[in-house]
Amino acid sequence: MLKLLRPAVTRVLTPLGRALARRGISPNVVTAVGTLGTVAAALFFYPRGELFPGTVVITFFVLADLLDGVMARMVGQGSLWGAFLDSTLDRVGDAGIFSGLAIWFVVSDQRVLAGVALFCLVAGAVVSYVKARAEGLGMTCDVGLAERPERLVVGLVSAGLGGLGVPYVLAAGLWLLAAASAVTVGQRLLHVRRQAVSVPPRTLR
Questions:
Q1: Which of 65, 75, 87, 182 is exposed most, by the fewest CB atoms within 10 A?
Q2: Dist. CA 205–CA 200, nearest whole Å
Q3: Active-site residue, 90 included
Q4: What pLDDT is attached to residue 29?
């Protein structure tokens, strides 16, 4: 569903990307700044219980994840290094968000939810790793219920609404995200297994 919204978001971000490119700012710089801002905001606001303002600031920086791609296509600077950097820093940004939430839950004596937040962090990393490893072995793995955009939307929306005082929404969002991430790992493992058993065995390095 979120992939269907990407063209509309791209149109909105294109003028900003063009302005940054004219000033000589590279897509990789935008990627790095977006990740740094995401992690800094998550670790500053969330452990203090300032969930709504933290979510607003994080959302601003998360948009850099789309903006860098728009700029790369615009200026023709797409590269293997850029793709690698973007994927790697995505994991760092996710770690910042869910670590900040986990710290808040520990501080506020909500240990179960702290565990759920950590599970979401680990499961999200496994979801991404399964895809990367499969593609490194020459297979496809673009399947699953909860890819990174969906995980970010569920996590940030539930955190933001929780910060506004909506009862139970943050806990519900995290439990939903944990379940969806676990299902996604299973979907991807099965998808890769079907491909792997259909080819002759070979020696892997």
A1: 87
A2: 16
A3: yes
A4: 87
Closest CA to 21 of 69, 89, 83: 69
Tell me the per-residue pLDDT of 165-189, one tens digit each, with 9 for 90 and over: 999 999 999 999 999 999 999 999 9
Residues contacting residue 16 through CB under 8 Å, at least 6 positions apart:
67
pTM of the model: 0.87
- The residues, any chain, with a CB within 8 Å of residue 107's CB and separated by 6 or more, are 47, 49
Beta carbons of 17 and 63 less than 8 angstroms apart: no
**Nearest-angstrom CA–CA distance, 15 and 52:** 28
Question: Under a CB-based contact definition with an 8 Å cutoff, are residues 132 and 87 in contact?
Answer: yes
Tokens of 102: 């986990």
Q: How many residues does the chain have?
A: 205
Cα 2 from Cα 144, distance rounded (Å): 13
The per-residue b/e assignment along 20-43, b for 16 or more CB within 10 angstroms, e otherwise, is: bbeeeebbbebbbebbbbbbebbb
Non-local CB neighbours of 89 within 8 Å, separated by 6+ positions: 31, 32, 34, 35
Catalytic annotation, pick one of 65, 68, 86, 90: 90
